[in-house]
Amino acid sequence: MRQPPSDEALIALGSNIRPREHLAAAIQRLADTEGLHLVATSGVWRSEAIGSKGPPFLNAAVRVRLSGQWIDAERLKYDVLRPIEAALGRTRGEDPNAARTIDLDLSMLGATERRPGADVRPVVLPDPEVLLRPHVAWPLAEVAPDWRYPGDGRTIARIAAALGREGIQREPTRLPGHRARAKKAAALVSGHDG
Fold first, then answer.
1. Residue 27 and residue 12: Cα distance in Å, rounded?
2. Beta-bridge mates of residue 105
3. Contact between residue 45 and residue 58 where contact means Cβ atoms under 8 Å apart
4. Do 12 and 136 form a contact (C-beta atoms < 8 A)?
5. Average pLDDT by consecutive 10-residue portion of the chain (194 residues)?
6. β-strand partners of 163
7. Would strands 8-15 and 168-171 be described as parallel, antiparallel, or unpaired?
8. What is the pLDDT of residue 193?
9. Which of 103, 119, 138, 177 gives the lowest tally of CB atoms within 10 Å of its CB?
10. CB count in 10 Å sphere of residue 70
11. CATH 3.30.70.560, domain 8-192, yes or no
12. What number of H helices and E strands is found in the chain?
C-alpha cells in the first residue's frame, strides 16, 4: 500500500542444518549489529529443499531499520550478512543447493531497484526470488505486508497470496524479536490493500 522506507531493509533467512538454532543466532547477531535496528521478525515457515534431497528448510524474515554506512546494498550484504553466515558455519561450494547452516539474503532495500550489471559484487534489488518462491514471500509478507515490490507494483502480501502455500507450512516456533502481524497480512491478502 506504500513505498518502502528508504532506510529499511528486508532480509530473508533460511537454514536446514540445526535450523532453529541458526535462525535464532542469525537474528540475534543482526540485532546486535550497530546501525541496525530490528523492526520485526516473521514466524517460521517450513519448506522442502529445492534442487537437492537435503532436509527441509526453516525460513523466516526480518525487517530492519538502517543507519549510516549500512544504507548501502553492497556494504550490508558483504560487511554484515556474509560475515554472519561465515560466523555461523556457512560454507559456499559448487552446489548452490547444498544444505546450509544459514542463508541470509537481502530481499529489499527500501524501494531501490538495481538490475544485474558489470559490477564486481552486484547486488540485484529487489530480489527476484520474492516473486517466485512462497518460502521467501510469506515470511516477508508477515513483516512488511503493505510494502510494494518495486517494478511490479503489488504488495508483498498480494505476491504471497498469488504464489499460494503449496510446499510450505507455518511452524509454531517463535524467533527473537517476533511480532505477530498475521492479522494485518491476512487482511491485506484478502483484498483490503487497494
1. 11
2. 12
3. yes
4. yes
5. 82 95 96 93 92 87 90 90 94 74 93 68 84 96 94 94 95 72 48 45
6. none
7. unpaired
8. 45
9. 119
10. 20
11. yes
12. 7, 6
Task: State how far the Cα of 98 lies from the Cα of 51, in Å rounded to an integer.
Answer: 8
Q: Which three cell numbers stand for residue 46?
A: 517450513
Residue carrying the nine cell digits 523466516: 60
Half-sphere exposure of residue 34, counting CA atoms within 13 Å on the CB side?
2
- Which amino acid, one-letter code, is at 22? H
Indicate the angle between helix axes 156-163 and 134-143, nearest 10 degrees.
150
- Please name the amino acid found at residue 56: P
Which three cell numbers mark 104? 541470509
Distance CA 21, CA 33 (A): 19
Report CA-CA distances (Å) from 48 to 13, 42, 125, 166, 176. Answer: 15, 19, 25, 11, 23
Q: What is the dihedral of CA 138, 141, 147, 152, to 10 degrees?
A: 20
Question: 150: which 3 cell numbers?
Answer: 518495486
Query: Model's pTM, two decimal places?
Result: 0.87
Domains of the chain by residue range = 8-192
Per-residue DSSP letter, 36: E
